[in-house]
UniProtKB/TrEMBL annotation:
Pfam family, one: HTH_6
Family annotation (PROSITE patterns): HTH_RPIR (PS51071)
Gene Ontology molecular function terms on file: carbohydrate derivative binding; DNA binding; DNA-binding transcription factor activity
Stated name of the protein: RpiR family transcriptional regulator
PANTHER family xrefs: GLUCOKINASE, HTH-TYPE TRANSCRIPTIONAL REGULATOR HEXR-RELATED
Domain of life: Bacteria
GO biological process: carbohydrate derivative metabolic process
Length: 267
C-alpha cells in the first residue's frame, strides 16, 4: 500500500518530530482508522489540526479527509485481495503471474498503439517525462534507452521540478506521463499546465474508469490488472516497465526501417 509505505517513512524520523508521532499512532491504530477524526488524532498525539493537515499534505493529499479516504480504500483493497485468494493457491501465482499473463494478452491487441507512441516520440521536438514515487526508477530505465537511441528527453525525479518544466511545454512538446493511480495532488497542476500550453500527452497507467486525466490525454497505454500486493503496496512495476520496453522496441524497429530506406536511396 503506497500510503502505508509513505507513513512508515515518516515513522522513521526523529522520534521528537510531530510527524513521527502522528505516523506511529496511525500505524498502530490502522484497523480503527474509520473512527479516527482529526480532533481525536490531535488529542492522542498532542498535536494541532494544522500540524496534522501539514502531515497529510506532505504525503501528497489535500487534507485529512482526503488522506483518510485513500488510506481506508487501500487497506480494504488489500484485505479483499487476500481474502479472495483460494485456500490451496500460491499467493504469487494468483497475484503476479496470473496478472502478468492477462496484461501481456492485452498488449498483443495494442501493437498499433505502441507503434503510434513511437511515431509521436520520433516526431516531437521536445519530450518531457513525469513520474513519482516507485515509478521513478522505471522511468530512469526508459529514459536511458531513449538516450541510447539518440532521443533527447527531460526527466527530473523531483516533483516540484516536474511542475516547473510543465510550464514551458508547447504544442510541439510531447509529455510522457507515468502513474499508477494519479493519487498525488500535484498531477492536477501538471495536467493543467500542459493543457494550458497545448502540449500533447502520452500516458502510461493502470486502466481507471472515468479518470479525468486519462480522458484528457491524446494517447493512453494502459493495463487492467494489478500484480498483487508486495511489501504492503499495490504492485504493477513489471506491467508498466513492459509498456515502456515495447515502446522502445517499436522505436528501434522504426529506426532500422528508416536507416534501411536511406541506404537504398544511396544506391
Amino acid at each position: 500500500m503506497d500510503t502505508v509505505k509513505a507513513i512508515q517513512n515518516f515513522a522513521k524520523l526523529d522520534n521528537q518530530s510531530s510527524f513521527c508521532t502522528i505516523a506511529n499512532y496511525i500505524l498502530l491504530n490502522i484497523d480503527d482508522i474509520k473512527d479516527i477524526t482529526i480532533t481525536k488524532l490531535g488529542e492522542k498525539t498532542h498535536t494541532s489540526a494544522a500540524t496534522i493537515t501539514r502531515f497529510c499534505k506532505a504525503l501528497g493529499f489535500d487534507g485529512f479527509k482526503n488522506f483518510k479516504f485513500f488510506l481506508i480504500w487501500e487497506r480494504d483493497s488489500f484485505l479483499k485481495n487476500v481474502r479472495n485468494l483460494p485456500a490451496n493457491s500460491n499467493y504469487q501465482d494468483c497475484g503476479l503471474l496470473a496478472a502478468l499473463q492477462k496484461n501481456m494478452q492485452t498488449y498483443l491487441t495494442q501493437q498499433e498503439s505502441f507503434r503510434k507512441a513511437a511515431q509521436v516520440i520520433n516526431m516531437s521536438s521536445k519530450i518531457y517525462i513525469y513520474g513519482m514515487g516507485g515509478n521513478v526508477n522505471l522511468i530512469r530505465i526508459f529514459h536511458n534507452y531513449l538516450t541510447r537511441l539518440n532521443i533527447q528527453a527531460v526527466f527530473l525525479a523531483d516533483r516540484d521540478d516536474q511542475i516547473a518544466y510543465s510550464h514551458f511545454v508547447n504544442a510541439e512538446s510531447l509529455n510522457i506521463i507515468v502513474s499508477y493511480k494519479f493519487r498525488d495532488s500535484r498531477w492536477k497542476n501538471i495536467f493543467e499546465n500542459i493543457r494550458a500550453n497545448k502540449g500533447q500527452c502520452l500516458v502510461i497507467s493502470k486502466k481507471i474508469k472515468n479518470n479525468p486525466y486519462l480522458k484528457a490525454s491524446d494517447l493512453v497505454l494502459d493495463f487492467e490488472f494489478s500484480e498483487g500486493f508486495l511489501f504492503y503496496r499495490d504492485n504493477a512495476e513489471v506491467s508498466m516497465l513492459t509498456i515502456m520496453l515495447l515502446i522502445i522496441e517499436s522505436l528501434m524497429i522504426q529506426t532500422t526501417a528508416k536507416n534501411t530506406l536511406k541506404k537504398q536511396d544511396v544506391f
